[in-house]
Amino acid sequence: MYKREKSIQIKSSASAFYNNLSILPITDKNLTYFAVIHGSVVNMVSASTDGLNLSHRQLQSKEGGMVHGTSLIMQASWCVLPSRVLLVVASQKGIQMYESDGSIMVYWHAMDTPEAPTGCSTGSILVFNIPPKGTNITVSEVLEQHRDPITDIACDSSDDKTCVADLVTADDSGVLCIWKSGEDFKLMYKIAAYGGTCSSVKMWNGIIAAGYGSGQILIYNAATGTVNVVVNAHARWICTLDVASESGKLLSGGEDSFLRIWRICRNPESNTIEVEHEHTECVTDVQICGAKFCDPEGTAFAVTGYDLSEIIRYVQV
Q1: DSSP string covering 62-130, please?
Q2: Distance CA 201, CA 169 (A)
Q3: I need a surface site. Which of 60, 67, 110, 274 has the fewest CB within 10 A?
Q4: What does the angle CA 307 – CA 308 – CA 310 come to, to the nearest 5 degrees?
Q5: CA 270 to chain centre
Q6: Which pLDDT score, from 0 to 100, does residue 195 have?
């Protein structure tokens, strides 16, 4: 069971985008970073574990790293790399990469220019080479398998690095591409659209969970690209998924104002993937935009809603 905790106030409300919440736990400092998009601004909050001590920062969409712009921000997410953590902000104008606390912008990549013709809604996926430190960031590869705007990208969040595939990408038509990352990215499987937009996708321990506009969650085996489980999870559009890397808990949020927690695992005898429902929470009168676990075990989670200037938190009891 989970109980509702004190909410965290943010400077402005959440825009009505899929997956409009990113969380980075800083365990050694007992802090959690939250990022929520509002138009051309990213609202960042640094909160203590008890939620009492808050520090706010707002990041504005920029052009060339110097001039404030008004371009719409479509995604903001922390990328945890082996040697550093970056906050990546994607807007209509381009891609900004910041140090994890948002204090310094280390890289700017312009979109839709003569030098960089890949626009923000073409389905192209840019692969960047990130050094352990510094600003010498370069584009190493462009993946061109999707023909519709990208809705979500996820890597395998488990500690098992022996999986054949370790990255999945989804687009607005519902197509999924499963990749093996490396010096050159290799396409393992391309899965045809299934009944509409795939709004959110997550990967864990060789298992892919994909949420759709139909309200269904499809569970795929990443090694084969086949559907193992179909879950009729929500009455309306699924707008966010998240997975707790150390427990296999799956969090789903839908436009029906419900949050649900599931547990995914492999049956050791049959090696089949199984899904079990664990918890349901109704966030009354809130159009959910994003929901994330606050820790790798999944003992707490947070949720944002359209036109809601707060982050609602729940803790396991």
Answers
A1: EETTTEE--PPEEEEEEEE-SS-EEEEEEESSEEEEEETTSS-EEEEEE-SSSS----TTS--EEEEE-
A2: 8
A3: 67
A4: 155
A5: 31
A6: 73
- Residue 2's identity, in one-letter code, is Y
Counting runs of H as helices and runs of E as strands, what totals does the chain give?
0, 29
> Phi and psi for 27 in degrees, rounded to 5?
-65, -35
The whole-angstrom separation of Cα 48 and Cα 45 is 10
Mean pLDDT by 10 residues, the chain (317 residues): 93 94 92 95 90 87 58 93 94 92 93 61 93 95 95 87 86 96 94 90 96 96 94 96 96 97 91 94 95 96 96 95
- Residue 112 to residues 68, 69, 109, 118, 236: CA-CA distances in angstroms? 18, 15, 10, 6, 34
On whether the CB atoms of residues 124 and 142 are closer than 8 A, the answer is yes
pTM of the model: 0.92
CB atoms < 10 A from the CB of 66, how many?
A: 8
| Backbone angle region of 223, left / alpha / beta, with phi > 0 → left and psi within -120 to 50 → alpha | alpha
Report the candidate in 151, 245, 264 with the shortest Cα–Cα distance to residue 200: 151
**Quick check: 132 and 84 in contact, CB under 8 A?**
yes
Give the integer Cα–Cα distance in Å for 102 and 196: 35
